[in-house]
Amino acid sequence: MTERYWLAVALVAGGTLVFRLMFLGGRRRPELPWLVIRSLDYIPPAVLAALIAPEFLNFSSPDPAALAAGLTAVLISLRFKRDFTAIVLGFIAYMLVNKLFL
Amino acid sequence: MGSPLLIGVFPFGLIYGAAAREAGLSLTQTVSMSLLVFAGSAQFVFVELWQNKAAFLVLVLTCLALNLRLIIYGASLSQELGPPRGPLEALIRSYMLTDESYVSSAIGFRKPGFSSRKLLYYLGAGLPTWLGWQSAGLIGYLVGSLIPPDWPMVMAAPLIFLALLISLLRAAEPKNRPVKCSAAIAAGLAAIAADNLPLNLGLLLAIAVGVGVALWLEQSRKKREDGQ
């Protein structure tokens, strides 16, 4: 279990360092194809959305509290542009719905 | 200018430390990951997938996919900073590359009357971010046991990712924002549909769907623009 942990950390850390060094680490700038550059731009939103969507909206085990937390956080974040406030209020919405209705 | 960065990453660092403890990691493991990886969102994803017992490759690939954006940051920043003067500078400035250091430099360099040395300005953003992230992770781990057990810590990671996603979409160029939003929506829907695939494979599939849809939309926009 711990070997697996350290191997995973090493791979993520090593890969991340390569990404960081790719343009900042040397004199020569690598030439990446346009299509690759474009997809790099879309990967982070896709990753984050793929990670969270099933947590907030899950048809096999619906959770109204999670949905309320997500909606609250989205609305606060869009309206007031305060990320941490959005997280805290989302959290509170989750607890409230759980306490009041479930 | 450094203190807002230090304060900005601090709460997230606290939650990272607490979440790592909750996932059963040791203090050494938690702190080492911060020192070696030094990329907040990927560390959250790591802890989340580790706790969910995701397949090894899914965990590594998802974390790396999330960090691919650092290539873009590096490409943009290297235009400003120029070539490094030695391997040590190359290593330090690369290691310090984060969302925070990139964004505050990109904004700072464009301020009218910017006159300081760009590398120092960039490192001046990177160092407080680093200090804040490292210390907050440690403190979060140590005080993690004080968190009331009825607090739904399972929601911490999804809410943080959600806030990250929205701020990412908000920061996108207006021209590009609809396509980025479509990438997120397509990936989200695909992830919900593929949630029951074994080993969290649905995650990788959903990422591919999101990026594929975005590229396809972008191509068709280009064609439309060329046609006009």
SSE topology sketch:
The complex is a heterodimer of chains A (102) and B (228).
Chain A: H1 2-24, H2 34-56, H3 64-80, H4 83-101
Helix pairs in contact in A: 3-4
Chain B: H1 2-22, H2 27-36, H3 40-51, H4 56-67, H5 69-81, H6 87-95, H7 99-109, H8 118-143, H9 156-171, H10 177-193, H11 201-227
Helix pairs in contact in B: 1-3, 1-8, 2-8, 3-4, 5-7, 7-8, 9-10, 10-11
What descriptors fit this protein?
heterodimer; A: 102 residues; mainly alpha; 4 helices; elongated; B: 228 residues; 2 domains; 11 helices; 76% helix; globular
Q: Would you give an account of this structure?
A:
The complex is a heterodimer of chains A (102) and B (228). Chain A is 80% helix and 0% strand. Chain A contains four helices and no strands. Chain B is mainly alpha-helical and 228 residues long. Chain B is built from eleven helices and no strands. Chain B has two domains: 149 residues, no CATH class; 57 residues, no CATH class. Classes of the chains: A mainly alpha (102), B mainly alpha (228). At the A-B interface, helix 1, helix 2, helix 3 and helix 4 of A face helix 2, helix 3, helix 4, helix 5 and helix 6 of B.
Largest interface: A-B, 67 and 85 residues
Instruction: Detail the poorly predicted runs of chain B.
Output: none
N- to C-terminal separation of chain B? 46 Å
How much strand of chain A? under 5%
The assigned structural class of chain B equals mainly alpha
Tell me the quaternary state: heterodimer
| Number of structural units classed as domains of chain B | 2
Structural class of chain A: mainly alpha
Distance between the termini of chain A: 37 Å
Compute the CA-based radius of gyration of chain B: 19 Å
Helix content of chain B: over 70%
Number of strands of chain B: 0
Number of helices of chain B: 11
Q: Largest sheet of chain A at a glance?
A: none
Q: How many strand units of chain A?
A: 0
